[in-house]
Amino acid sequence: MTEERITACARLLARGRTDALAMADSWAGDDAWSIGCRAYSFSRNRLRRAAEAGRYP
To answer: 7-31: per-residue pLDDT in tens?
Structure first.
């Protein structure tokens, strides 16, 4: 992997985590585990969508 691709992946992963934290609702029962699962899913989805869109062949 090139530095450019690693940086792009890091940004996508960070954005997924940031979005998951922004959506967290402790009143509804979100805790560290549920937020972590959501962050993983959001991050994975962003990587998958970027790859499928051909942005990073």
So the answer is: 999 999 999 999 999 999 999 999 9
Per-residue tokens: 48:
């998958």
pTM for this entry: 0.81
Measuring CA to CA, which residue among 12, 20, 23 is closest to residue 39? Answer: 20
Residue pair 36/21 in contact (Cβ under 8 Å)? The answer is no
Buried b (16+ CB within 10 A) or exposed e, 18-49: eebeeebeeeeebeeeebeebbeebbeebbee
